[in-house]
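Need residues for this backbone.
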């Protein structure tokens, strides 16, 4: 009953996916490298900032609870 439509829709779905993948403009190697380095650098910097804030807040709470 409803199975015939699903079986017919699958091949056209995969053809559509294949057509969309052909439209993608993939970045070149140098651009990909620059963007990857930027993501890693920003992640490290934000990790350090969060660690510093965590340390400061932890010491502040410990100070306040020891009063």
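Answer:
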């Amino acid at each position: 009953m409803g199975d015939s439509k699903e079986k017919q829709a699958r091949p056209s779905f995969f053809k559509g996916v294949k057509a969309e993948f052909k439209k993608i403009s993939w970045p070149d190697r140098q651009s990909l490298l620059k963007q990857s380095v930027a993501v890693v650098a920003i992640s490290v910097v934000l990790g350090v900032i969060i660690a510093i804030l965590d340390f400061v807040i932890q010491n502040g709470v410990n100070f306040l609870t020891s009063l």
